[in-house]
Amino acid sequence: MNSKEIVEEVSARDIRLIRFLYCDPAGVIRGKTVHASQIASKIDEGVGLTRAQNAVNLFEDLIQVDGMEPVGEVRIIPDHKTFTELPWLNRTASMFSDLREQDGSEWGGCTRTVLKHAIAKAHAAGIKVFAAFESEFYLAEDTDNGPQPWANGPVYSSSGMDRASAVMDDMVDNLTEQGFIVEQAINEYGPGQQEIVLRYTDALGAADQHLKFRDTIRGTAEVQHGLHASFAPKPFVDGIGSGAHLHFSLWSLDGKTNLLHNPLAQTEISEVGKNFVAGLLEHMPAVLALTCPSFVSYQRLKPHSWAGSTISWGYDNRECAVRVASPFTGREAESINLELKTSDGTSNPYLALAAVILAGLDGIEKKMTPPKPAHRDPALLTPEQQRECNIRPLPSNQLEALDALEKDELITDGLGELMARCILATRRAEHARALKEGDDWARLNTFSTF
């Protein structure tokens, strides 16, 4: 829709408030709300925002970042294509936005723009990236002992599905009403843990869709059912972790040919696909700082957790950081895709996808060759097999991942100078705060934010 059509839609639906949303470097969905009486002008000119807002980290601490001080403003400029009415609220809609300078030029603190640049680089290489985030989340209720899981049931069981059905049905309906295609809705391994999967789309659309998804799941649980829904990677100390596994595939620019497909070996990826995997593995320590960016993220990345705890890849191997997802018979050329297991719900999807694209493109450009794929859990391989597969440990904590990011020129160049400095400063401050306050404090605060 164009500006005129959005104004007409707001009037026709009797919408009262329109949220101009964005995702900050900490992965938090923020924004400002415009009244319908102002939408005709604000839809194009945007809303003012202090530059300092993007220097607020996950724990709501304002960190000193040069170029992100409380002096001067940028503009929140909504993308018309992301307009949806929010079914769990009364007369309210939202759009996701770019953050731009007052003259309309790009601002280095906009995470959505970082992804746009990575997409443009892929386009220049003749590649169109499609993606989808496969998100796990917990439903929880308030108790005297803090948030506790709600509607427990055996994993993938009909009884588990039944117990959460009142909430899950509303979530599915609210997603569908906004135009999203829901493929699966299931109960997961943890007590109260759920998963809803949306169909893949182009890379920018996938990131926008994931943020709309997060908002819908949280809003439906809180507003319609009085529950919490949290995408935190490790909300309960003894519980199963939650991921936001990133599925993606590489296509020709016309969208007709899946470049991962290997016609000579239908269940294996192509040479281009292997090059991409090699690049992703090469830059994995730095990429991790953006796909598993929070202090609590590293409490999930443990052996035998189906989360990926090593730099590794394999075919349908859910213990590897990168899994080649097996294609479906008769749809091999369309359905073969890659899955990044080391990705969770605290990530900013624009930055996560950008890092993956940049790393993989580097592998294609340099024709990197990946090591031998792991045929079983990397922790169970013999030392000789681990060497053959070049199994290496991931960064063990947030600080190690940030150090790797700082040293990786390809990824920091892709982020841009201001964004890179912002992420390093705000995330390191998070780490220091979490160490000071303790694991329980960090888990609870991450739970409530995500």
Instruction: Tell me the structural class.
Output: alpha+beta
CATH topology of the largest domain: Creatine Kinase, Chain A, domain 2
Count of runs of 4 or more consecutive helical residues: 15
> How confident overall, as mean pLDDT?
94
Bulk shape: globular
**Largest sheet geometry:** 10 strands, mixed
Domain GS catalytic: 111-450
GO molecular function: ATP binding; glutamine synthetase activity
Keywords: ATP-binding, Ligase, Nucleotide-binding
Can you tell me about this structure?
By secondary structure, the chain is of the alpha+beta class. The protein folds into two domains: 3-108, Roll (Ubiquitin-like (UB roll)); 117-449, Glutamine synthetase/guanido kinase, catalytic domain (Creatine Kinase, Chain A, domain 2), CATH 3.30.590. The chain is built from 15 helices and 18 strands. The chain has helices at 3-12, 39-45, 111-124, 158-163, 165-177, 203-225, 271-282, 284-291, 332-335, 349-365, 383-388, 398-407, 409-415, 417-437, 439-449; strands spanning 17-23, 29-35, 47-50, 73-78, 84-85, 92-100, 128-141, 148-149, 182-187, 193-198, 201-202, 228-230, 244-251, 310-311, 313-315, 322-325, 337-340, 392-393. The strands form three sheets. Strands 7, 8, 9, 10, 11, 12, 13, 15, 16 and 17 form a ten-stranded mixed β-sheet that branches. Helix 1 packs antiparallel against helix 2 and helix 12 packs antiparallel against helix 14 (417-437). The protein is globular and about 65 Å long. The chain starts with a helix and ends with a helix. The model has no long low-confidence stretch (mean pLDDT 94). One of its GO terms (molecular function) is ATP binding. It holds the Pfam family Gln-synt_N_2. Residues 111-450 form the GS catalytic domain.
